[in-house]
Amino acid sequence: MTDSHTAGNTYIKFFDALSTHGIEVYAFDQRGWGRSVTKTAERGLTGKTDRVLDDMTSFIKSVLPSPIPLFLIGHSMGGGQVLYYAARGPSEIRKHIRGYLLISPFVDFSPASKPWKATVIGGRLLGKLFPRRQMMSGLNVDFVSRDPEVQKAIKEDELCHDTGTLEGLAAMLDRTLELSTGRIKIPADAGEGGVTRIWIAHGSEDGLTNFAASKRFAETCVAGSDKEFKAYDGHYHRLHDEPEPYRNQFLTDVVDWILARSGELGQEDGGQSKL
């Protein structure tokens, strides 16, 4: 499984837990985040959407050909990127992807975090005029997880910075606009064997990304029969970092979905839409 992460997030415990179920995880720090940053001036230099998709393609190519089924997972900003990739990524790469998993994907802002329309318009304009200008996003950790230890860890992790650039912001806003308005459609043949297999998970109390927008996208913008929208009642943004026992239940759901689709093509256990 390969991962596309969000801004300032960590997945070590989640990925370690997946590995105990025989699921190998390959991940990279996107430009401007994590250890890809060697100096403060590089923070948030994600680039335009074309660069983001090219970086994803280069990383996926690094694990191809794969002797085992390959899945692509994305959370939040990374979830929006994976949805975009499933729709518009190169077909010669998508044909190797057995399934797509989206965790709290950034299809739209949550009402609790939605900026003013003028702010969005201004952000797009400034991104074109001053692309490398940095800005602080001011992440509210209270929206991330109900676990106070997770909130504390975010505040103390130097790699979990909240610095973006105007260019990266503008690109993210453009992708979000296309996703939230239905301009992005995922075809029925976006995966291995000419079949799209997609699982979208979202917490109903997510204060950062929009639960209803994710559900609507799953219902109206994903073609094919093997799709599922999994609602987690009362859960926050990081489903993989919620308190126990919710964290382990989410892990079980992810593992079950992947393993059900990891057999020989045409012999998987999945296949029915669950919306």
Model description:
It comes from Sporormia fimetaria CBS 119925. InterPro entries: AB_hydrolase_fold, Hydrolase_4, MAG_DAG_Lipase. This is Alpha/beta-hydrolase. Pfam families: Hydrolase_4. It contains 9 helices and 7 strands. With 275 residues, the chain is an alpha/beta fold. The chain has one domain: Alpha/Beta hydrolase fold, catalytic domain (Rossmann fold, 3-Layer(aba) Sandwich). A 5-stranded parallel beta sheet has the order 1-2-3-6-7, with helices on both faces. It has a two-stranded antiparallel ribbon with strand order 4-5. Helix 8 links the parallel strand 6 (197-203) and strand 7. Helix 5 crosses helix 7 (166-180). The chain is globular.
What topology emerges from the helices and strands here?
Layout: E1 2-4, H1 12-19, H2 49-61, E2 70-75, H3 77-88, H4 91-94, E3 97-103, H5 117-129, E4 134-136, H6 148-156, E5 163-165, H7 166-180, E6 197-203, H8 211-220, E7 226-232, H9 246-260
Parallel strand pairs: 1-2, 2-3, 3-6, 6-7
Antiparallel strand pairs: 4-5
Helix pairs in contact: 3-7, 5-7
Organism: Sporormia fimetaria CBS 119925
InterPro entries: AB_hydrolase_fold, Hydrolase_4, MAG_DAG_Lipase
Domain Serine aminopeptidase S33: 9-244
List key phrases describing it.
two-stranded antiparallel sheet; 7 strands; globular; Rossmann fold; alpha/beta; 13% strand; 275 residues
In short:
The protein has 275 residues and is of the alpha/beta class.
Query: How many beta-strand segments?
Result: 7
CATH architecture: 3-Layer(aba) Sandwich
Q: Biggest sheet, strands in spatial order?
A: 1-2-3-6-7
| Rg of Cα set | 18 Å
Morphology: globular
What is the C-level CATH assignment?
A: Alpha Beta
Q: Give the H and E element order.
A: EHHEHHEHEHEHEHEH
Mean pLDDT: 88
Q: Largest sheet at a glance?
A: 5 strands, parallel
Q: Unreliable segments (pLDDT under 50, ≥5 consecutive)?
A: none
Helix content: 25-40%
Number of helices: 9
Structural class: alpha/beta
- Ends apart, CA distance between termini: 24 Å
CATH topology: Rossmann fold
Beta-strand level of the residues, as a percent range? 5-15%
Protein name: Alpha/beta-hydrolase
InterPro entries: AB_hydrolase_fold (IPR029058), Hydrolase_4 (IPR022742), MAG_DAG_Lipase (IPR051044)
Organism: Sporormia fimetaria CBS 119925
Domain Serine aminopeptidase S33: 9-244
